Amino acid sequence: MPPLDAITAYHNDMTSWRRDIHAHPELGFEETRTSDLVAAKLEQFGVEVTRGIGKTGLVGRLRVGNSPRSIGLRADMDCLPILEANTFGHRSTDKGKMHACGHDGHTTMLLGAARYLAQTKDFDGTVHFIFQPAEEGLGGASAMLDDGLFERFPCDVIFGMHNRPGLAIGKFQTRPGAMMAGGAYFDVTVTGVGAHGARPESSVDPVVVASQIATALQTIVSRNVRPVETAVVSVTRFHAGQAYNVIPDKAELGGTARCFSDQVMSLVEERMRRIVESVAEGFGAKAELDFRVLFPVLMNHSDEAQFILDCAAELVGEENVNRSMVPTMASEDFASMLRAVPGAYIQIGNGDGEGACEVHNPGYDFNDAALPYGSSLFVKLVEKRLDRLTG
Ligand SMILES: [Zn+2]
Ligand SMILES: [Zn+2]
Question: What whole-number distance in Å separates Cα of residue 71 and Cα of residue 81?
Fold first, then answer.
């Protein structure tokens, strides 16, 4: 029986797990109930569980045969601080927290695959089921890496998937190379000399200096980044002063930078630092830049991207697979894992047409119809990569 059919037999079970997780959302590094649930299910399937990798993260290990080959499959477990607008039965029971990015579905799809693989054992090698905490900007992937994820659970290759509203159920898309943008946050602190608002000659006005800096930063994308590359530098915060008649001694700017290569990210950071420090110096003020790369560029390795696309095509037909997806400016911290081990990330359709609500929206819900497709793709990756015949 092909995996899709076998896994379709679990569809009702998977739907109830998914809705249970949806109703009990947990923020990054607080996923205790979720990781308890995942651990209990994995153990019940006969998968060996190690807890506490990256605080609330966990890894399931399933070894069959003697082959030294291994594969890692990763799902994320955290929710977002959003007040859910949905009124259906499985809506969030914890006000202000919500599974608005579909990580409830990702976790469920990986659990479905674990159940199938532990039952059928039709492969030769080791599968690591990686359940990651805190994907939404809190660094869950790095926390797992810091806890020795790939030293303790070596993987030849790793794969992950994210749902995509607007893409029909049963469709998949990705691309080799850069798929999702790298993202950085920055803060600039300008220190001048405060004075009476009526005596500017006694001041070094940080408001004026910070304004010049904000304007000069706009030239990085227009004058320094090659026109054929893509980058964003947005100043989204500007704070200074309290009173009408006081020139403050400090001004603070903050914002975000996005791009598709490490070189461009380094260029943006280097140009920012130069502009921030030199503009301030020109006015007799001091300025400091704190530039933090939170998400590296998500780079799919070519062979693995080809492999996951081929597996998807076997499952749903070539006509339902887009091999040259347009890259997205959104970021994803699976990118950090892909820096350590070759692999690829893929998008799975969450449904199109009416009701295809975007992620991070209070009306979003993971589409349970996608569950068997995602689980089946995870299974196919394992059975093809750890094929008994080629072992
Ligand atoms: Zn998200
Ligand atoms: Zn997400």
Answer: 33
pLDDT at 272: 98
Which helix (H) or strand (E) segment holds residue 271: the answer is: helix 262-282
C-alpha of residue 183 to centroid of ligand 1, in Å? 14
Distance 117 CA to ligand 2 centre (A): 25
Q: Report residue 391's pLDDT band, with 50, 70 and 90 as the boundaries.
A: very low
In the reported structure, the alpha carbon of residue 200 is separated from the centroid of ligand 2 by a whole-number distance in angstroms of 49
Tell me the residue ranges of DSSP E strands in the chain.
48-51, 58-64, 70-76, 125-132, 157-164, 172-173, 177-180, 182-191, 195-196, 231-240, 246-247, 250-259, 286-295, 298-300, 321-322, 343-349
Rounded distance, CA 312 to CA 304, Å? 12
Q: How far is the CA of 162 from the centre of ligand 1 (A)?
A: 9
Concatenating the DSSP letter of every residue in 47-102 gives -EEEE-TTTT-EEEEEEESS---EEEEEEE---BS------STTS-SSTT-B--SS
What's the gap in Å between 360 CA and the centre of ligand 1?
Answer: 6
The CA 188 to ligand 2 mean position distance, Å, reads: 29
CA of 79 to the centre of ligand 1 (A): 8
What does the pLDDT average to over 58-66?
97
Separation of 138 CA from ligand 2 center, angstroms? Answer: 12
CA of 391 to the centre of ligand 1 (A): 38
Do β-strands 286-295 and 172-173 pair in parallel, antiparallel, or remain unpaired?
unpaired
pLDDT per residue as tens digits for the range 273-321 = 999 999 999 999 999 999 999 899 999 999 999 999 999 999 999 999 9
Per the CB < 8 A criterion, the answer to whether 369 and 356 are in contact is no
- pTM for the full model? 0.88
Give residue 172 CA to ligand 2 midpoint distance, Å: 16
